[in-house]
Amino acid sequence: MVSTYRVAVLGARGVGKSAIVRQFLYNEFSEVCVPTTARRLYLPAVVMNGHVHDLQILDFPPISTFPVNTLQEWADACCRGLRSVHAYILVYDICCFDSFEYVKTIRQQILETRVIGTSETPIIIVGNKRDLQRGRVIPRWNVSHLVRKTWKCGYVECSAKYNWHILLLFSELLKGGACARCKHVHAALRFQGALLCVCDAHCAVIGSQIKNQGVFSLVSVQCVGSVPALRGKGFPTGPAC
After folding, report:
1. Cα–Cα distance list, 20 to 5, 23, 89, 149, 207 (Å)
2. What is the pLDDT of residue 172?
3. Exposed, middle or buried by CB within 10 Å (0-12, 13-18, 19+), for 210?
4. Which of UniProt's keywords are assigned here (predicted)?
5. Three-class HEC string of 173-188
6. What are the pLDDT digits (tens) for 157-169?
7. Whose CA is closest to 95, among 62, 58, 133, 57?
């Protein structure tokens, strides 16, 4: 049975959220930052533990406010589909304090606009640019403690440039999300520390594909352009930030 899992990726300008997505899907990174100006949809098919999952990864441009209702959501083309996803990935730059404040604001708005009585949508906070560790503005322990203990969200640090913890992020996202949806447990995803080795996921990145070693594999990718878009328009021409 094939399941569909929709994920929204949000973050301030220049944090590398689109670079994370493209590193996961295409195993590529560019030093040239192209700002995301329109919503982009990626449709990878993923095999995990023998089960096929159709991921819908929605890469959104920076938004000023989270839509409070469906009317507001569909009034802005950049926000369409934002309220109906199964999980949120909120990305910040560990070297930029303002980008973390942006994540705090968006997370709070997501919670405030959630429909009463519905299950809680998982939110994962991702600290990108770990390769620039010396420029960190907030100690990792402080962020991790706030996110996990107070916010009850998952927390991962990664490097889109060096493909560090990218695979771990999406494999744990899928495992945690599927568990929450099937077993109706608390949807907050908790990771066993952001310093886990990627090899613990028993996966290896080879070329532009993820080679399956019995746990997790990426079998196909399709990119659908900004809204409105037609299926099959091809891949984007350059990595966005």
Report:
1. 18, 5, 11, 25, 16
2. 79
3. buried
4. Cell membrane, GTP-binding, Hydrolase, Lipoprotein, Membrane, Methylation, Nucleotide-binding, Prenylation
5. HHHHHHHHHHHCCCCC
6. 999 999 999 998 9
7. 133
Strand residues in the chain grouped as ranges (E): 3-11, 40-42, 45-48, 51-59, 87-93, 123-128, 154-157, 204-206, 209-211, 216-220, 223-224
- The DSSP-derived string for 117-138 is TSPPPPEEEEEE-GGGGGG-SS
Please tell me the predicted confidence (pLDDT) of residue 220.
Answer: 64
In sequence order, the 6+-apart residues with CB closer than 8 A to the CB of 207 are: 27
CA distance 88 to 102: 14
CA distance 56 to 14: 22
* Sequence-distant (≥ 6) Cβ neighbours of residue 132 within 8 angstroms: 94, 95
Q: Which fold has domain 3-224?
A: Rossmann fold (3.40.50)
Q: What is the DSSP letter of 147?
A: I
Whole-number pLDDT of residue 130: 97
146-180: b (≥16 Cβ within 10 Å) or e: bbbeebebbbbbbbbbebbbbbbbbbbbbbbbbeb
One-letter amino acid of 157:
E
Low-confidence ranges of the chain (pLDDT < 50): 182-214, 227-240
